[in-house]
Design goal:
Helix content is about 35%, strand content about 25%. The chain is α+β, with helices and mostly antiparallel strands and about 160 residues long. Strand 1 and strand 2 form a beta hairpin.
Length: about 160
């Protein structure tokens, strides 16, 4: 058993009285909720309501105005930077794919960078039915195909928390 690695497993996320603004506009104020391992939640709201901003705050890309984002591991509270780097994936509106790379190159690069294995990558390709697309440049893929390719890297290099925008 790898104790050090097990202690870095994300077991719960707590959002505590979070407030966030964009410019002079308050997106939300006093937002609180918890998610435990294995739970799923859907965040709904109108365009511009702050859904993406909340996900970006959880991922560490922007700072909230007030409140706390607390990550819990098997041994208690985790450092936010550690959790954001090793325990979560953020898949935003733009997949971040390099248009000149083939789907195979892009997936291989991303999975290696995220610490996944070749075997896990192959399994993700099969699971998401990407085999016919692997030799196509990502710029030639449809929006849905690009999204599946992006999801494959999450499947092949798993993290405890997926933030899907």
């Amino acid at each position: 058993m790898d104790i050090e690695r097990d202690s870095q497993v994300l077991t719960r996320l707590d959002i505590e009285a979070l407030s966030l603004s964009r410019g002079e506009r308050r997106l939300f104020d006093g937002l609180s909720f918890s998610l435990s391992a294995g739970e799923a939640a859907a965040l709904t709201g109108a365009n511009g309501a702050g859904k993406t901003s909340l996900l970006r705050a959880v991922a560490g890309f922007i700072r909230p105005d007030a409140g706390a984002i607390v990550f819990h591991g098997a041994d208690g509270e985790m450092e936010a930077e550690t959790a954001q780097r090793s325990a979560l994936h953020l898949l935003g509106h733009h997949e971040g794919l390099k248009p000149q790379r083939t789907a195979r190159q892009e997936l291989g690069f991303q999975v290696e960078w995220l610490g996944g294995s070749a075997e896990a990558m192959d399994a993700a390709v099969v699971r998401l039915k990407l085999s016919p697309l692997l030799d196509l440049e990502t710029r030639k893929l449809s929006a849905g195909q690009r999204r599946r390719l992006s999801l494959a890297r999450l499947v092949a290099a798993p993290r405890a928390l997926w933030l899907l925008d």
